[in-house]
């Protein structure tokens, strides 16, 4: 489907061999290919441009060693830089879930995979970290969404807050907090309502819940296949409630995952996990080097 960057650059550098430094011309030609590869991987144009500018500086004058071809060398420079941007300057910190009960607020648009990810993360915290987790759905307008979380809870062996009709999202969040404290839970996860697109009602609701529980982590769940839209959604949620981390779902799909680069570069938020399928164990820690490799093809 896609031609990999290594293949592209192999072609560009076919003429070039031996030792020496890459000339500005060589680098310029190579960088055109890098830019196309990034755009094909769904990296946004400004991010791709900026990235290429920085890599150009590093590639110009880089010594061409005998052992590897110039194409591979440029690919390595690009790969390392991608990895660095994806990891961010501070790296990816662990979730702040000490001081029980720690609230985790899950936010995002409807259909992004928020409820599924809530279940996946709860299961992970239980299985890997031995945490006692309580989950609560705040989606008062969609009883089916509340049921969905309860069913997931049953499947993965994680408690859900009993559903009480007629409560507001803030009421439910407060009840979850109380129940988590009384029941000796380490973490309580609040699955907020999503909407098909961002609107004031959704944002006000999320902000009210945020103010009520002061979450330790506010994780934004976005569909990794939606590229630029995912980045815009992240900016809006961040401006309103302050996002502490991002989960990119549907990374098991066909896309190259360029949204990850745009997300990190534009919002500065750490990507913590990637969704790799519908099953409850299909949640992986975000690995910058793996995504860098995938973007390059
Ligand atoms: P919500 O409306 O944001 O709560 O979305 P849901 O959690 O209900 O997920 C919507 C659909 O996406 C469901 O069919 C999920 O099984 C599916 N889904 C969620 N995460 C992933 C993922 O990482 N990969 C794939 N392939 N499907 C996912």
Automatic annotation (TrEMBL):
Q: Which residues form the signal peptide?
A: none
Q: Where is the SRP54-type proteins GTP-binding domain?
A: 270-283
Please tell me whether the keyword Hydrolase is annotated for this protein: yes
For this UniProt entry, the molecular function terms from Gene Ontology, in alphabetical order, are: 7S RNA binding; GTP binding; GTPase activity
Top enzyme class of this protein?
Answer: hydrolase
Example of a GO cellular component annotation carried by this entry = signal recognition particle
Keyword set for this entry? Cytoplasm, GTP-binding, Hydrolase, Nucleotide-binding, Ribonucleoprotein, RNA-binding, Signal recognition particle
Q: EC number(s) in its UniProt entry?
A: 3.6.5.4
Reactions this protein catalyses = GTP + H2O = GDP + phosphate + H(+)
- What domain notes does the record hold? Composed of three domains: the N-terminal N domain, which is responsible for interactions with the ribosome, the central G domain, which binds GTP, and the C-terminal M domain, which binds the RNA and the signal sequence of the RNC.
Query: Which family does the record claim for this protein?
Result: Belongs to the GTP-binding SRP family. SRP54 subfamily.
- Reported function: Involved in targeting and insertion of nascent membrane proteins into the cytoplasmic membrane. Binds to the hydrophobic signal sequence of the ribosome-nascent chain (RNC) as it emerges from the ribosomes. The SRP-RNC complex is then targeted to the cytoplasmic membrane where it interacts with the SRP receptor FtsY. Interaction with FtsY leads to the transfer of the RNC complex to the Sec translocase for insertion into the membrane, the hydrolysis of GTP by both Ffh and FtsY, and the dissociation of the SRP-FtsY complex into the individual components.
The subunit structure is: Part of the signal recognition particle protein translocation system, which is composed of SRP and FtsY. SRP is a ribonucleoprotein composed of Ffh and a 4.5S RNA molecule.
Q: What is the recorded name of this protein?
A: Signal recognition particle protein
Gene symbol? Answer: ffh
């Amino acid at each position: 489907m896609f031609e990999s960057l290594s293949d592209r650059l192999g072609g560009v550098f076919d003429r070039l061999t031996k030792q020496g430094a890459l000339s500005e011309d060589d680098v310029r030609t190579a960088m055109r290919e890098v830019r196309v590869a990034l755009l094909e991987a769904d990296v946004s144009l400004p991010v791709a441009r900026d990235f290429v500018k920085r890599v150009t500086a590093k590639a110009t004058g880089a010594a061409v060693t005998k052992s590897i071809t110039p194409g591979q060398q440029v690919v390595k420079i690009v790969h390392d830089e991608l990895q660095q941007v994806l990891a961010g300057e501070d790296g990816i910190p662990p979730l702040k879930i000490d001081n029980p009960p720690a609230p985790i607020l899950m936010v995002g648009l409807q259909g992004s995979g928020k409820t599924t990810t809530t279940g996946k993360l709860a299961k992970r915290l239980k299985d890997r970290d031995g945490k006692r987790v309580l989950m609560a759905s705040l989606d008062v307008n969609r009883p089916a969404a509340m049921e969905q979380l309860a069913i997931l809870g049953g499947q993965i062996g994680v408690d859900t807050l009993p559903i009480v009709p007629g409560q507001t999202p803030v009421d439910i969040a407060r009840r979850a907090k109380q129940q988590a404290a009384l029941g000796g839970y380490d973490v309580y996860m609040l699955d907020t309502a999503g909407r098909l697109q961002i609107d004031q009602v959704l944002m006000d609701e999320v902000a009210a819940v945020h103010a009520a529980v002061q979450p330790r982590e506010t994780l934004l769940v976005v569909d990794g296949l939606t590229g630029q839209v995912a980045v815009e959604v992240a900016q809006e949620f961040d401006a309103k409630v302050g996002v502490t981390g991002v989960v990119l779902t549907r990374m098991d799909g066909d896309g190259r995952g360029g949204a990850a680069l745009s997300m990190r570069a534009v919002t500065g938020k750490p990507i913590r996990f990637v969704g790799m399928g519908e099953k409850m164990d299909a949640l992986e820690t975000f690995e910058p080097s793996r995504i860098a490799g995938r973007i390059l093809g």
